[in-house]
Design goal:
CATH topology of the largest domain: Methylamine Dehydrogenase, Chain H
Structural class: mainly beta
Distance between the termini: 27 Å
Shape: globular
Number of helices: 3
Strand content: 35-45%
Number of strands: 35
CATH architecture of the largest domain: 7 Propeller
CATH class of the largest domain: Mainly Beta
């Protein structure tokens, strides 16, 4: 029996895709940026840059890291920063407006997005606003551009090869720039929304082209009031999409990764009487919507914040709106009695959801939902659960599921046209290997409902995690020296690797 287990472990294989762990580290903070790297319950919050960061990353932007967690580059749209936190070669003056290029950036979350191309080159999508529009619509973009960043240049410090490449011209809704892997496992569907209407612009992005959008009108209009609260996200498997603004309902839809189309819109209306601040009406203007939302790792639960509350919805329920459970609430006043509320939330690679603040944000602590796949208060919301040394207001980068691969059996799970570039065929990264006190298991491919097991050379189970998302840190304190086998089981497929404990 033991020999059978070992044989199964040794012959498991995986056919890889272009998915990579570009999300291993996140840049957060403003005056001082820190690099947040997550594995299991452990967080590395080492300093990335202080002093000149204000000129590079003063609002929620985007960043990309390599599999080991080293920052490759980052941007808020008007400029691009290299791994040394310097402006990258040709990485300035990306926008049209002199004001936004020198003083400020588009004041919204999800105003930039990074997508991989091939051979260590990347697309950087970003909004821009003409100076003529500033007087009447401050911060409302009237064009979408992209730049091409080559990280092979300058000894790994990178270079912007092209910039201000037109994707769209015309007034658009702020933020809500997001993407989902195409069912073929290589290309991307990029989505943004129209200005105060029901339009969704859906672009096919391939390694060599950004195709004109197909525009889908669906669901209610996403109204806008210049409050800089708006958000959009896909579920980890790309089958669902959710979006909200400060004055619009939470909209939940299905998404077809093969055709790039939405269906079955469900409007979830938020009761305005939930806006309470320490038991009293919020001093903010009462909102009809919210500021952010995030799916759980298994895609069942959708979390939402209306600045004061964290609410969980069960997307499998017959009546999603009626399934609402308040799992967290702002429980303290802001600094010096001022206002500070929940703002952005994202699903981290370790399967937890992180939440930052809206307002002064001087306490440096982020909030966490530890077990998002569990219904109700069992999801374990922790107020100020992740202390750091940086400003925590409006500082989370725009991240997507870069590790989502092909949708097997979908009818469009093969790449056509341009030949595939050479890719890493390994489903798992184990490091360090050999290991001593701990080892990091990192999935290069998203596996829904993944279960992680570790066996010793005799086939004995030494460790298991039946709710793994993308990354996990494993303490090897109880392991003797020798060879161990890691196995991933999932409805999406299996994967295996081995490491040495010494």
């Amino acid at each position: 029996m033991k020999q059978t287990v070992l044989l199964i472990l040794l012959v498991l294989f995986y056919k890889g895709s272009t998915a990579q762990a570009y999300d291993r580290s996140w840049l957060i903070g403003t005056e001082c940026m820190i690099k947040l790297t997550m594995n299991g319950i452990n967080y590395d919050t080492s300093s990335f840059e202080c002093g000149t960061a204000r000129t590079l990353m003063d609002l929620p932007g985007s960043n990309i890291s390599d599999t080991a967690g080293n920052i490759l580059f980052f941007s808020v749209g008007s400029r691009v920063g290299n791994p040394l936190a310097q402006i990258m070669e040709n990485g300035d003056t990306l926008v049209d407006s002199l004001f936004f290029a020198t003083v400020f950036d588009i004041p919204a979350a999800q105003a930039t997005l990074i997508l991989p191309r091939s051979n260590n080159t990347f697309y950087l999508f970003y909004y821009s606003e003409s100076d003529s529009l500033l007087a009447s619509n401050f911060g409302e973009p009237d064009r979408l551009y992209y730049a091409i960043v080559d990280m092979n240049a300058n000894g790994g410090l990178g270079k912007v090869l092209k910039k201000k490449q037109v994707v769209h011209k015309g007034l658009l809704g702020e933020g809500r720039l997001t993407a989902c892997r195409h069912a073929n496992g290589r290309d991307w569907w990029m989505v943004h929304q129209g200005y105060a209407d029901d339009a969704y612009y859906i672009y096919l992005v391939t390694p060599d082209s950004v195709y004109p959008p197909h525009i889908q009108h669906i669901g209610p209009s996403n109204f806008w009031d210049n409050s800089d609260a708006a958000f959009a996200t896909f579920s980890p498997d790309g089958s669902k999409f959710a979006t909200v603004t400060a004055v619009s309902p939470l909209i939940l839809m299905d998404f077809d990764r093969c055709t790039g189309t939405f269906s079955n819109p469900d409007s979830i209306f938020i009761p305005t009487d939930t806006f309470r601040y320490n038991g009293y009406p919020s001093p903010l203007v009462t909102l009809n919507g919210g500021s952010s939302c995030s799916f759980s790792p298994n895609g069942r639960y959708l979390y939402f914040t209306n600045l004061i509350d964290i609410v969980q919805y069960d997307t499998w329920a017959l009546n999603v709106q009626a399934s609402a459970v308040t799992v967290g609430r702002w429980d303290t006043v802001g600094p010096a009695g001022g206002d500070a509320e929940f703002y952005l939330m994202y699903l981290l690679p370790n399967g937890k959801i992180i939440v930052d603040d809206y307002g002064p944000g001087v306490n440096g602590s982020f909030h966490l939902i530890d077990s998002p796949d569990i219904g109700g208060r069992g999801c374990h919301f922790r107020f100020n659960g992740l202390p750091t040394t940086t400003n925590n207001a409006n500082v989370l980068p725009n991240m997507i599921n870069y590790r989502l691969g092909a949708l097997a059996g979908s009818g469009c799970d093969t790449v056509t046209g341009i030949s595939e570039s050479k890719v890493d065929k390994s489903a798992l990264k184990l490091y360090p290997n050999p290991a001593n006190s701990k080892i990091t298991v990192s999935l290069m491919q998203y596996y829904k409902n993944a279960k992680l097991y570790i066996y010793d050379a005799l086939g004995r189970e030494m460790y298991k995690d039946e709710s793994m998302y993308l990354d996990a840190d494993i303490d090897l304190g109880g392991f003797t020296n020798g060879i161990y086998f890691v196995r991933i089981l999932s409805p999406d497929g299996n994967a295996a690797a081995k490491f040495v404990k010494e």
